[in-house]
Amino acid sequence: MNRFLTVLLFLLGISFSSGQEEIYWPDHEGMRLARWSPDSKTIATWGEGPAARIWRDRDGSLAFELDHSELDRALPGGELIARNNLDGLRNVDWSDDGRHILTQAFVRGDLIFQHVWDVDTREEVYSYLWGTKEYFGWYTNNKLHEIVHAGALIASWYDNSMSFTDIDPDSSTFGRELASIDFGELVTWETGRWNKTNDEVLLRLHTGWHTNWRRPCGGCEMFFTLIDADLSSSTFGEILWQSEAAGEASDPIWPNAHDLLAISRTDSVELWDLDRESERFGMRLARMEFSGAKPYDMLYHERSQRLAVVRVAIVEQHRESYRDWERCVVNECEFVVSVWDVDIESRTFGQRLLEIRHPYRLKEDKLEGGYNDTNLVRLNKSATQVHFYTRGLMLNNGVVRLNDEAAAYDLVTGAAEEPRPHLSELRLYNETRSVIEAPPIEIDIDFDREHWRWDAVTSNPAGNKIVLQLVSNDVPFTEYWLIQNIETGEYFFPPETWSDTVFQG
Length: 505
Hints:
- This protein is mainly beta.
- About 5% of the residues lie in helices and about 45% in strands.
- The protein has 3 helices and 37 strands.
- The protein has helices at about 1-15, 325-330, 500, and strands spanning about 35, 40-45, 50-55, 60-65, 75, 80, 85-95, 100-105, 110-120, 125-135, 140, 145-150, 155-160, 160-165, 175-180, 185-195, 200-205, 220-230, 240-245, 260-265, 270-275, 285-290, 295-300, 305-315, 330-340, 350-360, 365, 370, 375-380, 385-395, 400-410, 415, 440-445, 450-460, 465-470, 480-485, 490.
- Strands 7-8-9-10-11 form a 5-stranded antiparallel sheet, with no helix packed on it.
């Protein structure tokens, strides 16, 4: 009780001292997270209730809300789901052009429906079953989506077919299926990657028996498959290129300005040419081999055309580990970053230029037990340095640091250097695979690290504001949110109404 009063007085003190008493930020019960629109002018919140709420960034006032409680939902076979089976929202996101909002709703405890809303009319324009909750909490993406063609067309796929539907309210074909692709004996698995410039999609397809409610079979043959998704093309729906994909293959690097596809295997990374105008289209250009550890991440820098393959290797083994995540708990590990020249016009194309080594550490989770990987490796904007980050931590003095730059190494010599940060682009929590150049963000909230930790953060596209969630390590579980203006350093807490859902008892 004493801690509750102390925290409450602290919150009230901040709200009066920060000069933000005129601003009222989102009031949302059981809030899970917040996400800004592409123009940073509005922010969407969601949580346990049936509505997603959209707030104006300039003053925190409510712009509108999207109520999911009266929506009709049907399974692919036609069975209707009762409206009162809504269990809250899972996620909210924006289309790239900001014209549509995509929401995911928990229904009946084991289904996830995706809803597409028009921002101007605030009406639902499309919905479908997105996935199912399965054993051990896994979600099977039965039907996926991507909004293409300036937000006027949605492509979704389900099992062995893909359909394209017009969702432009001003179109004469609004709501109609314009075209479809049949994959035949192949069926989809996981998400697709889109090249919106060339109207192409890269899917991971597999063979073998598949049902709507079960994950793909373990012995299936899997392929990375490039498909023509241009409705006006004579080859629309055709497979343009295909390569077998091992089950352990990581997410590929693609698309990019050079139409190079990088696929990681257990002991190598393959580089393929997917430029349809090139004489080498569909050819494997290089196979970069290594041993000792499978890839941890891959980073591609378009301007310098360098590919950095990041691995984690054991450098001093103390004992055997039976679980993969334990091997760097009981043994000493380090990052091994191999930098390769992938400029096909270069004399050193396909050659390893440099190898950088840096200590690898896992963060102990005293609340949940076990260890968390909070490491992040990125290239700087000019591709002159490899940066190692700690994604977030709370220091002993109560300061929260985000994207803490632990070290930087020169990409030519491999020598350790001082990080040269810029705030040209801020992305947190792996929201993008592009370059991160964010200096450490410090929020001095004067909280004891023994009792509090930060759990989630999201930034606006303008890169000048973040929303941070703080979680208590004590029982009963408590959490609250704060918002910071990165440019001014000012931060403030949501209105007191949030405290009703935060401090329970």
